[in-house]
Amino acid sequence: MLARSDTQRDGALEVQAVYSVAALARAANVTPHLLRRLLLANGVTFVRAGRATFVPLSEIEARIPPLWESIKAAEMVRRSG
Length: 81
Description:
Helices cover 56% and strands 14% of the residues. By secondary structure, it is an alpha+beta fold. Helix 2 crosses helix 3 (32-41) and helix 4 crosses helix 5. 14% of the residues are buried. The model is unreliable at 1-9 (pLDDT under 50).
């Protein structure tokens, strides 16, 4: 298992091409199962790689604008600090 960066430990997300459902759930402070159901309800398309499920950044940007705005804000804070 790979170690997470400090920004992932405190719940903030760094901008990247895809996010695991587990990482998004940690950032939102909900269970991965609940987040997956919410994403499905919003019509988000998932990418599977083995057992892991990922969400492309483009899907977050298009279908969940509040989450996209929070990711952008966290990235701006990370860059300025």
